[in-house]
Amino acid sequence: MRYFLFSSFVFMVVFSGCASKLSPTSQDDTFATTLQEQTKQFERFSHEENFDELLMLFRENCKAPQTQKVYAKVCEQSLHVKDAKAFFQNAFVLKKVEPNEQRSMLTGYYEPLLHGSMKKSKRFAYPVYGKPKDLIKIVGEKDAKMRGRSVKGKVVPYFTRAEIAKRKMKAEILCYVDDKIDLFFMEVQGSGRVELEDGRVMFIGYADSNGHTYKSLGREMVNRGIFATPEEVSMQKIKAWLEAHPTKRDELLNTNPSYVFFRKMEQKATGSLGVVLTPERSVAVDRAFIPLGSLLALKSESPQYKVEKFVFAQDTGGAIKGPNRADMFMGYGERAKWVAGELQAPLEVWIMEPKF
User: Which positions carry the signal peptide feature in this UniProt record (predicted)?
Assistant: First the structure.
């Protein structure tokens, strides 16, 4: 009986299924085309890639709990890899992130250096606030985190930037700095370093915000006719204009009601993922579209900066909205400051989805 069944099976395969195997179906063609495209895309990002470095960074990225949710099995496999390039090629599928009505754009941020003191003086007049004791965080629908304060048993919005400037805050003052504009930009960057009078350096990181929606100062200056187009705007140009028009400074800064509170850090710039940021490898994304911890491939080119490489989604930002929107961490120093301040470039994004 077993022989008869086996013979019948061979007969069906040879005479019934042979034609379909020798003549590829549309599904076969589609699969082959997709495989070719995947290989082509991967090689496109591989030309100047250091896969050993990428593997080391991937393992560090995997230490974050949120990364484990995205890449649990792949993270485990990464610990036993001998051929780094083969690992990334075989463990992931490149999936194009399609844009929506929001602008597809790559910008940059960096770790700024401010000058400060532990004591307030005529020079060091601007406080760097820790998280206020009266700031309340409420989790609403779809896990949206709202901030406020309690007034006679009712929760009301927390103070705006303009209101904070006029109040004695119920918050620790980490230090005082000598430049209000630089302090504003440190809020935008989300972290920084403060060199104190005695030579010590204090690492500062994001602690929380007042919950108000971030509004772009550059866009406001375009709306007022200070700059002709968004492409003309840069951090350096904004600061130069504000320094040249000191009577307009506070009014313009206060058009952004959002305010960031900081905390002392034991390490340099750290993103929302809880991982120390790596220059030109870490990006801030909109987590509504891209999960934190994801491995991405970016392609962007402008007169200031060109990138075609693999990076990690390790941070977020109030101005980063949309699926094809990323903010590249440039690091520390003058080059990082210049590139971050000038960078505005079209962007394409691919997310590396695990095959298993």
Answer: 1-19
Model pLDDT, residue 5: 35
What are the φ/ψ torsions at residue 307 (nearest 5 degrees)?
-145, 140
User: Does the pLDDT at position 169 exceed 90?
Assistant: yes
Average pLDDT rounded to a whole number, residues 179-199? 96
Which contacts of 164-167 are long-range, i.e. CB under 8 A and separated by 24 or more positions?
Answer: 164/129, 164/210, 164/259, 165/250, 165/254
- In a 13 Å sphere around the CA of 270, the CA atoms on its Cβ side amount to 18
Domain limits of the chain?
A: 216-255
Phi/psi region, residue 109 (left: phi>0; alpha: psi -120 to 50; beta: rest), is beta
Residues belonging to the chain: 356
d(CA 196, CA 237): 27
SS3 per-residue string spanning the chain: CHHHHHHHHHHHHHHCCHHHHHCCCHHHHHHHHHHHHHHHHHHHCCCCCCHHHHHHHHHHHCCCHHHHHHHHHHHHHHCCCCCHHHHHHHHEEEEEECCCCCCCEEEEEEECEEEEECCCCCCCCEEEECCCCCCEEEECHHHCEEEEEEECCEEEECCCHHHHHCCCCCCCEEEEECCHHHHHHHHHHCEEEEEECCCCEEEEEEEEECCCCCCCHHHHHHHCCCCCCHHHCCHHHHHHHHHHCHHHHHHHHCCCCCCEEEEEECCCCECCCCCECCCCCEEECCCCCCCCCCEEEEEEECCCCEEEEEEEEEECCCCCCCCCEEEEEEEECHHHHHHHHHCEECCEEEEEEECC
